[in-house]
Design a protein that fits this description.
With about 250 residues, the protein is an alpha/beta fold. The protein is about 35% helix and about 10% strand. It has a 6-stranded parallel sheet. Helix 2 packs parallel to helix 3. The radius of gyration is 18 Å and the shape is globular. About 20% of the residues have low confidence.
């Protein structure tokens, strides 16, 4: 499939990377996720001139839509009204990225991507590979290809380093494959020095989703790990610089 011929993605993968910034907000599922929270977040993104809204846990067991091992249709939950969210986002000119666990997508990929396309979602963030065995490595090919058929962008998270797949599938826009901002919740090693080092180590293999843009920040000696309201290691200007470097 020649994904670049439709004009949807432009002529080169670089055109996509230069225009996309995803902003993540982790909301603990036990507290619930509501349309109003995401509406407010839409407004926040518009205020800071971001292009995409990333909704965490809106396609996972027990959350917005629940899926069985054999796909039997969607079961809406009261936590998130996706029809409302996508309509609201279109009115505000904000594009949506849905987060999903890889094996959840694997169980009913075509049906899920059909639904995402119907909703008007722009991208899916596929997470929790957490290994490099044959099963997980072979799996990258399927969502990359299937998402292209549905005009969906793909961001791989909790994954192995990039190996050039985006040249075949330019709808693959990014990979995590590194110790990013998320680790500040439970680890003390994501220092400003670490963030400089990975520019010359991890990023030698390709682009990186670090989840930059933490608004809670600390200086050396003040940093603490706190899972519920995490803070980043280093000042706010360090986070701003990541948008340029990463």
């Amino acid at each position: 499939m020649q994904t670049t011929e439709s004009g949807w993605l432009g002529k080169t993968p670089g055109l996509i990377r230069s225009s996309i910034r995803s902003v993540a907000e982790v909301i603990k599922p036990q507290y619930g996720i509501t349309s109003q929270i995401n509406n407010d977040y839409n407004e926040l993104i518009l205020e800071i001139k971001e292009d995409y809204l990333l909704i965490f846990r809106c396609y996972n067991d027990g959350m917005a839509y629940k899926w069985k091992t054999a796909f039997k249709g969607d079961l809406p939950s009261p936590h998130v009204d996706m029809e409302h969210l996508t309509r609201y986002a279109r009115e505000k000119g904000v594009k949506l990225i849905l987060w999903a666990v890889w094996h959840t997508i694997d169980r009913q990929m075509a049906e899920a991507f059909d639904l995402f396309q119907k909703w008007g979602v722009e991208s899916v963030k596929v997470d929790f590979y957490d290994c490099k065995n044959q099963v997980s490595v072979k799996f990258y090919e399927r969502p990359s290809s299937e998402a292209a058929k549905h005009r969906l962008l793909v961001d791989y998270y909790g994954c192995s380093k990039p190996t050039g797949r985006e040249r075949t599938y330019p709808n693959v826009i990014n990979y995590e494959a590194g110790r990013g901002n998320e680790y500040n919740k439970f680890d003390r090693n994501e220092t400003p020095g670490h963030n400089i080092d990975i520019v010359f180590t991890r990023m030698a293999d390709g682009s990186m989703d670090y989840t930059s843009g933490a608004m809670r920040n600390s200086n050396e000696g003040d940093f603490i790990t706190y899972n519920l309201t995490p803070i980043s290691y280093g000042p706010l200007c360090h986070q701003i610089a990541m948008f340029v470097v990463y």
